[in-house]
Amino acid sequence: MSSLTGDTLGKAFRVTSFGESHGACVGVIIEGCPAGLEFPVAQIQKELDRRNRKVHVDVSTPRVEKDTPEVLSGVFEGRTTGAPICLIARNKDVRSEYYEAIKDLARPGHADYPAFVKYGGFSDYRGGGRFSYRVMAGIVMAGALAKRLLGLLNVEELGHVVELGGVKASTVSPEEIRRNVDATIKLDGGEFWIGCGDLKAAVDMAKALLEAKRGNDTLGTVIEALALNVPVGLGEPPLDSLDGDLAKAFFAVPSVKGVEFGLGFRAAALTGSTTIDRYVVKEGRITSETNHAGGILGGLSNGLPIVARVAFKPISSLPREQSTVNMRTLSMEPLRGRGRFDLAAGARAIPAVEAVMAITLCDHALRAGLLPRVVKEP
Q: Residue 86's beta-bridge partner residues?
């Protein structure tokens, strides 16, 4: 792949994305995966199922993709060979009629206009093409493989919704996230998957989604991503700092508009005496009493949990009529309908956030020599 394109993430663990929302398939090519690893088919399927899970019948996209990962190369007799791995998920529930009717209109809040200019009008406009969240299905598959590799180091990734439509969750423990993130919330005779570790806040988030639907509007989301048991010293500062690479990876997820680590922007309003993490020794190991830095200092992991928050803008496809510009005639035209979309990034974005985090951590673990080139498993 050309280094001039933006399709590849990572250096030692290289994940190259391909495919469009309404094309034949979406997928990834993974380079650098150690040989001998038992290929985690069930784990990949589980992550795809989470990505496709509906939040609620009235607020989730009607598009239903029952993805089954297909392995085209790099796996033999159930184990990785060390060669590039190619994975695809076929697009089956595709309806392009709406996009054919509006192909010359610049949808407000979408990348239609800058893509029209950059690619001379030749980019695939159906369902958003390369800019669609559908493309993340390939990244989620690669992320599942990265999680499997990181499991060899006992590293765990957890993501959960901490804010939706202005409703904020309380601080919860990793145990509560594991227990509650996939829980179903019952409200007004329906069931919601909110993906929040705070079940009380999840109820209010579900109410916010219903209110947005009544108002023909959409909502924003904040997802907190945690990585536990990360080895000390991951990162290649200054230009390949761990937080810098993680931020770049998070921004690869569609609709992301903000990323912060630890205290993030809140630290700017505080004093140094209240924000530094003082070192202590516990059980013969150096650690800190607090984790205001979010597990990264100087671009290197410091052994504490990595804590990042990823902010998603409200979904730009509003369920209401709008006015916009015809990119070919430069005339104003009405934009009716919106295709098939969620009302918020919400819980369905969690697998993508976890995936890009895992890919980045796996890349840096390989660069640090913490993962072998050949995995010797029973």
A: 29, 73
Cβ neighbours of 337 (radius 10 Å): 12
pLDDT for position 336: 82
Amino acid identity of 140? V
pLDDT exceeds cutoff 50 at 207? yes
pLDDT in tens, 140-195: 999 999 999 999 999 999 999 999 999 999 999 999 999 999 999 998 888 999 99
Global pTM reads 0.95
- CB atoms inside a 10 Å sphere around CB 194: 31
Angle at 151 between CA 147 and CA 157, to 5 degrees: 50
Structure tokens at 247: 């931020």
Cis preceding-peptide flag for 238 (omega within 30 of 0):
yes
Domains of the chain from N-terminus onward: 8-367 (3.60.150.10)
The residue behind tokens 């013969």 is 284
CA-based R_g, the chain, Å: 21
Q: How many of the other CB atoms lie within 10 Å of CB of 285?
A: 9
Residue carrying the six token digits 């496809």: 317
Convert the pLDDT of each residue in 292-314 to its tens digit: 999 999 999 999 999 999 999 99
Buried b / exposed e along 125-150 (16+ C-beta atoms within 10 A) = bbbbbbbbbbbbbbbbbbbbbbbbbb
pLDDT for position 2: 46
Residue that the structure tokens 């993709």 belong to: 65
If you search the block for the tokens 């030749």, which residue do you land on? 122
